[in-house]
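Long-time lurker. I teach an intro course on protein structure, and each term I like to show students one example going from raw sequence to a predicted 3D structure in token notation. This year I'd like something fresh instead of my usual example. Would anyone be willing to generate the tokens for the chain below so I can use it in lecture? Attribution to the forum is fine with me.
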Amino acid sequence: MFDLLIAMFDVKSPSFGALLTFAIVLTWADVSVQQQANVFEEQPQNATVREGDSAILTCVLSRNVRNCAWQRDGANFEMGGRYNYAPGANDGRDTRNCSILISQFNRVLDGVAWQCVILGSSDTKTQTSNAAFLIPLVQPSDPTILLNRNSVSQLSYPLRVATVLSCVSRRGNPAAELSWELDGQPTRGVYSVHPVQNSQPQQGQQQQQQFGQVENPLYDAVLEFDLANEGVKLERTKQLKCVARHPSFRSPVSMAVFIVRDYPTKRVDAYVEGSNDSTLEVESDRMVTLSCLADGRPTPTYQWQYRADSSAEWKEYQQGQNVSVVGLGGQFRCVASNQLNALAEPPSAQEIVLKVKTAVEESNFGIVVAIVIAIIAAIVILLLIVLFLYRRKSWIFAPKPIGSDVDKDAEAANGDTDKPDEKTALSQESQYENVGVNGKDEEMNGKKLGDSPIKESDEKEAASPENKVENSR
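-- Reply from a regular --
Happy to contribute to a lecture. Here you go:
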């Protein structure tokens, strides 16, 4: 073995010459590959482009070159129209920038493999960059909030089984960016991207296979939110919103779910419609409506119970928020409960007592009403009688004027024909004024004094035969 090594490194040995030649060839090949690799300082990269937009594929060299070009789908083509060098690239002088500008991207024509090419000369070889792909931008679906793979827009909390909500935006390229907002404030979530399996190959995917770069252009974006782990404390209804952002969206797209807090029945109120009393007396034929109202979520169910008196046991009477009662006296109460009251006794409302009046009580009531009416009528009649007597007394005892025809007739009947002197007449007139008689005795007495019964009787006596004989004498 040692002798063999000496023979290989012997300059005069034929084996040494062969070894030297092999080393030179390897060194030249390595330098050539290294030079080719180093000529591309920045090679084209895959890009996602929206239909109708412009795209730039970058190709920057490590040294100045005079001639560079591009290949589309492995074939040469001439620049012009929608395909031009990027601004400042390959301006006819030695340049290091060979980037290409593709206008009005068409997913069918342009969604292929693109390569930057350094044209060779008599002493250099043509060099080609790696393949870059213009992948069409694919708009994903609007976000959807799922619970156990079912879409939800409202849910109750605390949840019975699952606590994880998922926001999903499907089949987009690139994947949509998702975020959570709880009552308008950003909140945490677990984000992940999943390639779509068994999707249909897009334009350009066959070329990717030829160049050994197979990529699935469609992705599902998923954002999870765990109500339990996030420590959400709900004292009221809250809104959880999933916001999706994507280059194909003109503005963010969102979906919201309302998280409603559930709680057991806490308060029950029972009352009689049309009355504020808990104890009520009613007629035997009157219908009474009992109503019940409870606070709880989910909505409580209502059960009315009845017993004849406090010594009896409660029995189920009727279900429903409102019940009607006719002619049944006793105690009623409302019990309200929901699913969260299963572990504890549901609350009940204040008892309502109905007292039904008997026939005797109703007849006694009628008698009392009749007596009251009779008393009122008697009082009215008595007042009328008193008023009449008062007016009669005023008419009887009214003062008469002195010197009236009645007095003169009385004096003639008594044979007194003497006339009062002048002083007596003045005294009588003064007395007449003092008593307040204003010459209206005829109106107060209802007729003229000249027609009084006294005057008529005097005239009859004067006309009798006896008086006529006496007067003739």
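Some talking points for your students: The chain has a mean pLDDT of 74. The first helix runs from residue 2 to 8.
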